[in-house]
Amino acid sequence: MPLPKKSDTIKNVLRTLISISSRKTDLPFTIMTIEDLIKQLEQQYSFLRHIQISDDFYKEQSGDMVSVMSDINTVPPTELGNALHSIIDSMNRSLGEHAGHFFIKEIRNKLGDDYLLAMRDMGVDLGLMQLESEISRLERDITRRKNTS
User: Fold this and answer.
1) Residues β-bridged to residue 52
2) What pLDDT score was predicted for residue 17?
3) Distances (CA, A) of 1 to 54, 92, 114
4) In sequence order, which residues have a C-beta less than 8 Å from that of residue 89 and are 6 or more positions away?
5) Span of 26-40, 58-72, 100-114 with lowest mean pLDDT
């Protein structure tokens, strides 16, 4: 079975990010955060301009808020993967404690296998990202404990 198109993968990942994040904070904050992240990352990844996030908070489903132009399908997989990794990692850090300990694991569990394979094909391994996130949290906790003793 062929992997989903890159544009579909990006769209599905962003929908999932919005869905999970908006349960942990609120939808307007989630949309504002993800829009800001994408705008910041556009300087490094110009193809992100092909992604539109609608800030119509009154739509019934958050999936309708994400639009990805098919032009993104021409971007090399590793560049897209680097951008996706940056978006997920930045969103996790931006939400801070609101994201929760297993934020990336939730993303992995909610995405279908086809999308996970497509992401892995782009060089994004959510399992590894979760592990990196846990190690960073442990390092911060250890540093805090040392500073308070």
Assistant:
1) 67
2) 93
3) 32, 31, 9
4) 129, 133
5) 58-72
State the chain's maximal CA–CA distance in angstroms: 56
Q: List, as one string, the DSSP characters of 135-148.
A: HHHHHHHHHHHHHH
Q: Other CB atoms closer than 10 Å to residue 115's CB: what's the count?
A: 21
CA distance 11 to 9: 5
Domains in the chain, number: 1
The one-letter code for the residue type at 19 is: S
Per DSSP, 43 falls in state T
Listed residue (128, 44, 113, 40) closest to 79, CA to CA: 44
Is 1 inside any structural domain?
Answer: no
pTM: 0.86
Domain limits for position 24: 6-148
Q: Please give the torsion angle defined by the CA atoms of residues 16, 18, 19 and 21, in that order, rounded to the nearest 10 degrees.
A: 110
Residue 147 CA to residue 63 CA, distance in Å, equals 43
Question: For residues 55 and 35, what is the distance between their CA atoms, to the nearest angstrom?
Answer: 9
| Residue 111 pLDDT | 94
